[in-house]
Amino acid sequence: MFPTHRPRRLRQNPVLRSMVRETRLGRENLVFPMFAVPGKGVRQEIGSMPGNYRFSVDQLVEEAKRVAALGIPAVLLFGIPESKDEQATGAWTEDGIVQQATRALKKQVSSLQVFTDVCLCEYTSHGHCGIVSPEACGGRGGVLNDETLELLAKTAVSHAQAGADLVAPSDMMDGRVAAIREALDETGFVDTPIMSYAAKYASGFYGPFREAAESTPQFGDRSGYQMDAGNGREAMFEMELDFAEGADILMVKPALAYLDILAAARDRFEVPLAAYQVSGEYSMIVAAARQGWIDEERIMMESLLAIRRAGADIILTYFAPQAAKLLK
Ligand code: PBG
Description:
This protein is α/β, with parallel strands linked by helices and 328 residues long. It has one domain: Aldolase class I (TIM Barrel). 40% of the residues lie in helices and 17% in strands. It contains 13 helices and twelve strands. The chain has helices at 14-19, 57-69, 89-92, 97-108, 136-139, 145-162, 176-186, 207-213, 233-244, 259-268, 279-290, 296-310, 320-327; strands at residues 30-37, 43-45, 53-56, 74-79, 113-118, 131-133, 142-144, 166-169, 195-200, 249-253, 273-277, 314-317. Helix 2 crosses helix 4 (97-108) and helix 4 runs parallel beside helix 6. The longest helix is centred in the middle third of the chain and has 18 residues, at 145-162. It binds ligand PBG. Ligand PBG binds at residues 117, 119, 121, 129, 170-171, 206, 209-210, 215, 222, 278-279.
């Protein structure tokens, strides 16, 4: 009798295939990143990320209503401020763009969870994720770690005060989760969770986002704080640190090129894991599909499922609305 096992037996029809499918993707797994800009009536498509927009707060609210109606549980907010400076004032000021957008969303789309990205790079004049000084990094110049922590903590608290349901630090400074946790606890936000971009790599896949957020560093790059693509063990170390500092959810970013990191983290950590399918991953798929070289919907669903299979509970993705429509 050959062969004893015929795996094809269980692939004979869609019902059987569905019954034995190990991993599923649901709308409840998705978070949609959105970009808020000053003004009114603004709905400006991002050239490098077709189908994604920069919205003024009024338009963001309208779009968020559609997002919520699709069954997407949460959005992740980014802001592009009126003006930028060395202290990233726009990041932590009470009437900052993310704070305004958060207040509006909590008031007008109350079913939606509002997550906020906590970073300074969209708000600094130089585009780095912290305070830049010639004295940093042993006098070689760069981003000052501990001074930056104060501003990050201030930013996170201002988001919580505006009503954010969760804060997500993406700066990659050392000790930022502890600093943010302490500041939130001291101001009465003990129940605000932190989803930390724990293993965030210095990646070319962020290219389209930087056009969207106008956050390309004016000099140098982010490899002095974001992780080196060659490092897997170090990612576990970064995640252990963030967990020990009080992170509630640990994130790997980007997703597709780092699924090994995600799978290793799944084996190692009991907390929920998130993965960020970043701008470049999105734009590559959309661009190839527009050329007629791949089937956009198919590749979208296949890549999202792969991210789930590798171990993510939560996927941050610009495909969220499109995927949610298919999953309905
Ligand atoms: C801010 C931040 C970035 C992204 C998320 N938060 C940009 C960066 O680190 O340069 C990238 C998201 C994307 O590419 O979709 N630090």
